[in-house]
Amino acid sequence: MEDNAVILNIENLKIAFKMRQGNVTAVNDVSFQLRKGHVLGIVGESGCGKSVTARSLMRIEAPGKLLSGEINFQSKSLGKVGIQRLDPAGELIRELRWKEIAMVFQEPMTSFGPMHTFGNQISEVLTLHNKIGKTEAIEMAVESLRAVGMPRPEKLIKQYPHQISGGMRQRAMIAMALICHPQVLIADEPTTALDVSTESQILDLLAERQKTLGTSILYISHNLGVVANIADEVMVMYLGQIVEHAPVSDLFASPKHPYTVALLNSIPNIDKDYKNQKLEVLQGSIPDPYNHPDGCPFHPRCPKLIHGLCDMVQPRLLDVSLNCRVACHLYNASQKTS
Amino acid sequence: MNKAKKELLLEVKDLCMHFPVQGSFFDKVRGVVKAVDGVTFNLFKSSTFGLVGESGCGKTTTGRLIMKVMKPTGGTIIFHDNETGIMEINALSNKKMRPLRRKIQMIFQDPYSSLDPRMTIQQIVGEPLRAAGKEHMNNYKNKIAAILQKSGLSADYMDRYPHAFSGGQRQRIGIARALVTKPQLVVADEPVSALDVSVQAQILNLLKELQETLGLTYLFIAHDLSVIRYMCDTLAVMYVGKIVEMGLSEDIFNNPAHPYTEGLLSIIPRTDSKTKRCKRLTGGVADASNLPSGCYFHPRCQYAKDICKIEQPVLREIKNDHQVACHFSLKLQGI
Amino acid sequence: MKILQKIKSHSKSKKEGNKNYNPLYSASQWTLIWVKFKDHKLALVGLIILALFYIAVLFAPIITPYDPWEDSRYIYCPPTRIHLFHAGKIHRPFVYMENILTDPETFNRTFKTDYSKPYPIRFFVKGFEYHWLGFIKGNRHLFGVVDEVGIHLMGTDVLGRDCFSRNIRGLQISLTVGLIGVIITFILGCIIGGIAGYYGGIADNIVQRLMEFISSIPTIPMWMALGAIIPSDWGNLKVYFAITVILALRSWTGLSRQVRSKLLQLREEEFVVAAKVAGTSDWKIITTHLLPGFMSYLIVSLTLEIPKMILGETTLSFLGLGLRAPTVSLGVLLQDAQNLAAISAYPWLMISAIMVILSVLAFNFVGDGIRDAADPYKN
Fold this sequence. Notes:
Oligomer: heterotrimer
Helix content of chain B: 25-40%
Shape of chain A: globular
Number of helices of chain B: 11
Largest sheet of chain A: 8 strands, mixed
Structural class of chain B: alpha/beta
Order of helices and strands of chain A: EEEHEEHEHHHHHEHEHEEHHEE
Strand order of the largest sheet of chain A: 6-7-8-3-9-10-12-11
Order of helices and strands of chain B: EEEHEEHEHHHEHEHEEHHHEEH
Strand content of chain B: 15-25%
Number of strands of chain B: 12
Strand order of the largest sheet of chain B: 6-7-8-3-9-10-12-11
Radius of gyration of chain A: 21 Å
Number of helices of chain A: 11
Radius of gyration of chain B: 21 Å
Helix content of chain A: 25-40%
Largest sheet of chain B: 8 strands, mixed
Structural class of chain A: alpha/beta
Distance between the termini of chain B: 25 Å
């Protein structure tokens, strides 16, 4: 497959949760594409739906329910497959999981089973998906650990998760995720629980592996700095919808959506001396998930609110310039419908 | 900042917290983990002092020692009370410490576990008042309503339970609880680490406003350097139980003197990816149960020489109000 | 209850678009537990069964038509059938006379129904005298028939005593033994577990070893041994309380362990540290923060202990080592059902077993329901 080909095409995805007090639409009409060899960063705060979106790609969105939409994946073994049609407990999705779409989770302690050695767990991935023997699988596991920069991987194979540090566990997690050379790697806040020192190392590792293996990465984080350094494109989500989607340099240099602007202003700049200045704060809080606002979900907090328009009509995600999409009425005039 | 009018509020001298490491059932105590090892600093009234570092550096433990949640294994903590004068609080018994509690308060990191889920907001915020004694109970409800409003919450919320509130609102409740007795010193232990970015900014601004209106002094503990820079006038960088650099916020961020500080600043990802930074820090935080000899930082330090492996550097002043624990700090600064 | 009404009106107003105030915000922990409990269908069923049983037990002498200790000639009479149609026409509920016929050779007794005359069931009839709750004298019963006929809803036993009345009385003993035993368990468990959990150290060590020792003694042999040493000349009431104490001696260990572990966990919670930092005294922390913290867990434990007590008492009495005749408990009643004749010829004697099973199941369902509803951190 040539570079830049689209391997994952999500269209109008809608996922909801049934709760005691009502239905919560966690992902509301989300559409985007992931290209081969690209890193797509998804940022947003609590309740924006970024994690649920990512999980639906492997059909682990439960207890949420995928209501509508398409997840079209260009699989190596199954050809073009609509993941939304696959049974979450069925054989086909299991064929894809880990072999073609893998995931790295936030908390490495809970992603590894405490009762099995690393050797067991990593080689299990191999023996499940490929017809190779245990010995060969262990050898490949050792190599994969070496590739992620672990010292003495032969010793690590025999150790248990609680015996090593959090940063090293995360490296092992990445080794395990990439061992079958998947096309897509979903990284759900992989460095949030780590120190800055370790975070830096893990980010370097991910970037290096991505270049070597050509894996496409879907990187989810609430840390804008991290995303700015690893992603090629960035998608900003708010209350289940995409509000802005642009190449990384464009998004951070000239953010368009008022929410993106507010988010970037909310982060204290480490290189700036604030003296007596204060941060520009985004007023209000994330709305009640059971009661999404009418019209644009961001309008109650938007400093550029247009009465009569923003509170009644939902803005569509439309192209504003090359590869930049924004869902905001302010940009309607200059939008070209795609 | 007007340096002439600085009034001491808290003095911490050589504070130590050593935890014994148990061997197996038949082994005696195998060694110690020096969570906090000889920490010395001063807090001045109406200022914000930051304690920053990565995991295992001892900043949270230092905060808890000052709050007398644990008893230090060494060192002294001296509190300058505006009523009772200078008091050495590290040796005080629980009973004697109680009247001082209303003057030194704490804001916790996790807004979900730091509020008792079975109490109403009124009960939670009023607890320090009740504990302070009958003299402080007059106008009980009004005091609670007033501090809730100052923290950005409506007084109508007093009858509700914590489960009705979001993380940011809960943190505001925690702040209200810490401030209801009008304390002199507030220890903020990672108060925004568990919050969303936009909520973080709101809480940080709230803390700044409250400091101005109520004349508070903060000991601000965090791992996020950008938050520390925004909030603090002075700060101390900690590494595995020791302070490695301490001074004015401006000085440290513009001219870091310790290789660790310099390294941290270089690896923190920025949103303007245009300026390429050279990453000057490798490896992970040292293991507290297996510390390197000499300077704890030397295995990761690009300037390390032989002396760094043998002798532990002492914290000393290289410029006005700027202290560093490094053998080569003067040379590196070009002084 | 006001909160519940508010919640009901809230779900109505939600449809009308009133989005602002969710009354669950002011709901205390108990209200929330009740709301979640209602979702658990089995638990609700269990609660209804228990409510019915306890009401029956409270009004026992009134709802039972016969004196549980009164013999009659209607030996081993099967449950009386209630008819609604007589001679093809609808009639108020009534019974027929059962005539006893004894075969002169085999001494087999059979019952022949006399379909000629219907004897209507009356309500609030006069019957045997009783002292309700110990001091209210009365002789009215919920239902009954005239003296010549019998209405035995659950048949009669070897001495012609009405099984329905005996079962209700048995239920009375079994259900209350459980409650009293559980109160003793609660007190013992809280104090001992509390000491171990809060102070730790040597106290904790001693208590834990003691708990382990008692738990390791096999239950039924221990009960049997203790039951056997109850002097045979003790009055019924004394024996009754002795049994409850014996049962509690075993179950306090389980509760104690729960209390201890909950205390150990809660001690480390941030809000306890926050209370210490606020200046609250140790005693106040225990009573206002820790105790309410595990009250719901305790209630779950206790609710699940009661069926064990019921089964324990039933077992002891069944084995002849607990309550004895003439005291009526479900276990004593089951003694009569120990033989082949009972299963084949007089199966209604085993209804007592069904009562035991129903009560045990009901308590278990309710306990499960409370446990599922009680976590305050779940939304």
